[in-house]
Each structure stands twice: as structure tokens, then as C-alpha cells.
From TrEMBL:
Organism of this sequence: Chloroflexus aggregans
Lineage: superkingdom: Bacteria
Protein name listed in UniProt: Uncharacterized protein
Amino acid sequence: MIGRNRVQSTSEAITLQYANGKSIARPVGGKRFSPYIGFHIEVGRDDELDTRLRAAQIDQIEIKHQRQGGAEIVRHWKLGETIRFYPITSGPVAQTVAGSLGRNAHATAAAGIGIRWGSNDRSRMAVRGHLDLLVQMEVMRLVQLSVRSRMSDVLLAALLDHGRVCESADHLIDRTKHPDIVTFHELALPLGPGEEEEWGKGETTTVVPFKSLHPSQIDQDYIRQIWRPDAVHQAALNEWPGIQVWASEYALQAEERNVSNNEPNPTTVF
């Protein structure tokens, strides 16, 4: 029997970015730009989101983006140096970005992680989930954390560390109430600035990549602090099939599609 397919759909996601100090920014109305470190979302791409963040009195900043033909100043919502993120993925299938591609490309996409090689052999990586800031505002919208090049290794390392904490949680939760394994979205992944590093060949640049802020020792009190709300769990279950479809499509996208679809480039350039 041939059967009959059902069209699978994907949801639009809010693009979340991180500036590692290479980007420069200023307060709205300010005169001088200075290196900026922190998470941000572009203003003007989602009217509903803009309304909610404005009502919550989230500050805005102006970031100077280097584009072809000159610089462009774009307003962003300033989310601060640290966030809590509920990643909707079954987790990395390899320890490196290169290992996540090739023969593992299908498994990586099935895990809900988007990875591909971009121009100049620079990797691009993205993962979708829920931002705790928005969850607290009862805005249950998918957020896509997007990075490229060496920041792909940084994001992968954060996800690997999150997997470590999920495995620890397996032994700390009440199995009579939660018989299944603890999946990635059930715990908040805290992300924030790591140590300064020198990146580049020859002439280097000082950057501050983000990292997982999970402690080395995990106990029950900590798991309670980062345990997901019920709304996140239900949303993740509903969104999971679409996220797998999105990750498969992400891996196949050509670099040129970012321009034609007006997909914003992450402000980190390494």
C-alpha cells in the first residue's frame, strides 16, 4: 500500500542573537558606540513581540551592523548578558560541529538542531526553544538562537553541558511522578558571558563567547530552580514535529537564501 502523506508545517520563530564584543552598540539617542556583549532581538520584526517587550519596559539599543556597501544602525531589544533558555532538542549526536554533519547530518536534524556549512566554509548553527523572559510574560513563542563559525562550537558545547545536567537530573527527580528521562526542554539552560578569548589567525580579536552557566555539582535544589513550567512542556511536545522539519530544511538551505529571505545575520562574525 502506497499510503498518503500529510503536509508537515513549521512555525515562525523569533531570532535571538548574541554579541560577543565584536559588535558595537549605544543606547537609543546616544552618541558613542562601544563594544557590546549580550543577548538581543531586533526591533520591528514582530509587532506583537514589540508591544509586549515595550510594555515590560525592556530597554532598546542601537547596534551598528557591517553590511555590504557600508554600516547600518539597527535597533534591538537589550535582553542583558544572561538568559535562561529551554532548548527543544533531543541533544547533540557528536562532540564537534564537523562530527554533527556528514554521516550524522540526518541524525542531527532529527535531534532538532540546525547545522550547515555556509560561505567560506563557515558553519551556521541554530536551535529553537523558549526564552524564560517571554515565558514569564506568558508569551509562548518559539525563539531561535542563531550563531555562526566558531560560535557554533560554543553553542554545541553549551548543549553538551546541558545534556550532562539532564542526565544528573534523571537520578534526582521523583520517578513516581516522572518515569521518563529528563529531556532538554525540561530544564532551563542558563547562558552568559565566558572568559575573554583571542580569536583569529595572525591578527587576533578579543571576544567574549557565551557559555553554559550550569554549576559543576548538581543537586535537587538546583534542578527545582531550573525545572520547566507546565506550559513549556506542553508547547514543546506540540512543536517538536515542526522543529524536526525545520532542522532538516535548515541543513539544506543555501547561503544565498539568507539574503532573499531577509534573515538577519548573527552579529557575531567568528
